[in-house]
């Protein structure tokens, strides 16, 4: 009887044994090796099993059961086992080749989905339909966390694999997505599951030693994920420009910076009119600008600022007086302080005075 025509109710994997009984009965008595056609038929069935998503364990068990049930009588067991070995080996070859192809296709589809999702490309309805396949339910709001480490990574590198392993081991039942993008690690999670994103941040920092992670705000829909991703990237950029070294950044805490940068020309005008006169100082604007930065960062406490700058309080007081003389604004006066501090933040966003303000006017 041909196994492929067996009655319904066959065991798992038996539908991929077509011809195995015949090969066993024909090859085992003589001890011959399988022919090329027989080997190719096993490979083809192995490929079909992989494409159908069948588990390897059930397939091996099916071969062993079929070999025991159809064992040729009076044949040397070594010959029977040699035939089974060749058949299973050819089947495994076809299975592994097809599985690698399936994995590559699946990974390509996954990368395409992630790119479309993070950049807001493609039909929104199709994105939502595809999302279930990759573990997301886009009817919910989601937030995106981005980790930037000392090196650039892809998903095959040890660090992302370690972070992903830790993440899914702890939250195996959550609908989350982990990937790498442009050398950074990215985690997408439902917006009401902040514990996932904070754990991702902790594990990223632990795995790299000094990763900085930014979390975008929770937003609804497919477009919302793209916006949250952009917010996280912008937060990392702001942190670099502003010299913020906190390991965890939240876009919601840094909203003042994109607001300031939104009207670039107004920001250039503010920096130029308020801080431009500092360039007349001996040594240029940088020493006095660094003094103002430290002064505002310490909450305008003179003693703390002096320690941070390795200056005496008298030297610091002299510098603040020079700022007042050159700009006409007094850093110690509450009214002037707001304008000066906003201009200092703008200078850091514009990378002034390293970059001339004239070049920032046309920068994207």
Q: How would you characterize the overall build of this protein?
A:
- The longest helix is centred in the first third of the chain and has 43 residues, at 77-119.
- 33% of the residues are buried.
- Helix 10 (264-275) crosses helix 14 (334-350) and helix 11 packs across helix 14.
- It is elongated and about 110 Å long.
- The chain has helices spanning 20-27, 36-51, 56-69, 77-119, 124-131, 158-170, 194-208, 221-242, 256-262, 264-275, 286-297, 302-309, 313-327, 334-350, 357-360, and strands at 141-148, 177-181, 184-190, 212-215, 219-220, 248-250.
- The protein has 15 helices and 6 strands.
- A hairpin with a 2-residue loop joins strand 2 (177-181) and strand 3.
- With 364 residues, the chain is α+β, with helices and mostly antiparallel strands.
- Strands 1, 2, 3, 4, 5 and 6 form a 6-stranded mixed sheet that branches.
List keywords for this structure.
364 residues; single chain; disordered N terminus; elongated
Topology:
Elements: H1 20-27, H2 36-51, H3 56-69, H4 77-119, H5 124-131, E1 141-148, H6 158-170, E2 177-181, E3 184-190, H7 194-208, E4 212-215, E5 219-220, H8 221-242, E6 248-250, H9 256-262, H10 264-275, H11 286-297, H12 302-309, H13 313-327, H14 334-350, H15 357-360
Parallel strand pairs: 4-6
Antiparallel strand pairs: 1-3, 1-4, 1-5, 2-3
Helix pairs in contact: 1-4, 2-4, 6-7, 10-14, 11-12, 11-14, 12-13
Strand content: 5-15%
What's the order of the H and E elements? HHHHHEHEEHEEHEHHHHHHH
Average pLDDT score: 87
- Specify the biggest β-sheet: 6 strands, mixed
Distance between the termini: 74 Å
- The unreliable regions are 1-9
**Total beta strands:** 6
Structural class: alpha+beta
Helicity, as a percent range = 55-70%
């Amino acid at each position: 009887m041909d196994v492929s025509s067996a009655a319904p109710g066959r065991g798992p994997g038996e539908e991929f044994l077509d011809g195995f009984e015949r090969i066993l009965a024909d090859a085992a008595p003589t001890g011959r090796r399988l022919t090329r056609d027989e080997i190719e038929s096993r490979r083809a069935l192995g490929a079909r099993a992989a494409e159908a998503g069948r588990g390897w364990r059930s397939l091996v068990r099916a071969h062993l059961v079929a070999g025991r049930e159809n064992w040729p009588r009076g044949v040397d067991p070594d010959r029977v086992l040699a035939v089974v070995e060749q058949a299973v080996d050819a089947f495994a070859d076809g299975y592994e080749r097809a599985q690698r192809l399936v994995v590559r296709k699946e990974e390509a589809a996954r990368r395409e989905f992630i790119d479309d999702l993070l950049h807001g490309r493609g039909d929104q309805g199709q994105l939502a339909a595809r999302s279930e396949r990759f573990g997301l339910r886009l009817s919910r709001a989601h937030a995106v966390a981005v980790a930037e480490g000392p090196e650039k990574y892809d998903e095959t590198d040890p660090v992302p694999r370690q972070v992903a392993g830790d993440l899914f081991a702890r939250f195996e039942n959550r609908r989350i997505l982990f990937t790498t993008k442009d050398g950074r690690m990215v985690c997408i999670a439902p917006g009401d599951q902040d514990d996932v994103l904070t754990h991702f941040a902790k594990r990223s920092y632990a795995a790299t030693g000094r990763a900085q992670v930014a979390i975008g705000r929770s937003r609804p829909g497919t477009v919302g994920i793209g916006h949250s991703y952009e917010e996280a990237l912008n937060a990392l950029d702001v942190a670099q420009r502003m010299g913020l070294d906190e390991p965890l950044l939240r876009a919601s805490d840094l909203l003042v910076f994109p607001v300031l940068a939104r009207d670039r020309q107004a920001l250039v005008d503010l920096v130029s009119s308020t801080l431009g006169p500092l360039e007349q100082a001996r040594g240029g604007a940088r020493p006095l600008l660094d003094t103002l930065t430290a002064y505002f960062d310490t909450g305008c406490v003179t003693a703390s600022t002096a320690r941070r700058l390795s200056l005496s309080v008298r030297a610091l007081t002299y510098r603040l007086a020079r700022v007042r003389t050159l700009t006409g604004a007094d850093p110690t006066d509450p009214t002037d302080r707001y304008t000066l501090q906003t201009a200092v933040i703008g200078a850091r966003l514009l990378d002034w005075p390293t970059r001339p303000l004239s070049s920032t006017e046309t920068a994207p």
